[in-house]
Amino acid sequence: MKNFLLIIATSFILFSCSKNDDDIQNVNTSFFNINTGNKWVYNRYAINALGSTSSIIQIDSVLVIGDTLINSISYKKIEHKEFTVNSNNLLQTYYEYLRIDSNDHLVDTNGYVFHPGFDSQYQNVYTHLSSLHLDYNTGNYVQDTWGVSTFQNVAPQNIIVEGQNYFVYDYLGNFVGNSSLGIPNNTIHYMYEEGIGMVLRRCPFVSSASNYYEDRLVSYVIN
Question: Which domain of life is it from (predicted)?
Fold first, then answer.
């Protein structure tokens, strides 16, 4: 099974803080910055059971396009452009719509928390489901439960990503796999730095306790 654990298919995102009295209309809040024009670029690697890192297998370019209203609530429209590495072909373009709620959490249109910022008390329990597939016994389309993750910030730490030092808040998910499907326990990491955004994301394969994808920040422009 080649699937890896994503909380939400498009949960690549980032963001942090910027306060400037001259630009107060474009400033969002204390930890996150989703100002129009901000841009981040990530390289994706695959790491195997021996700890060997692959060559870059994918590049994600992320841009904050501007504001949009959804159900009378203002969100930022976030554009992702994913490229292959060798041929630099555009694989896909997709969009997210994010805002910062009253708790200073980064959320989507469903209120799902991508990262709680400084908030170390917030906790979320998330059930990971497979994509819809046909159950040949019943003839119905079903989703398997892969497992359940409990997410909460752990103590901030210094890490080095692509040769750069960052001080990150790791929104860590302790994943308990569905033993009846042979899915092992694991951890998921969403590491953000205040004022920069998402620095690193680590998502394990469903079928492996050792193999995972890692998305690493390589460049950014913050307004």
Answer: Bacteria
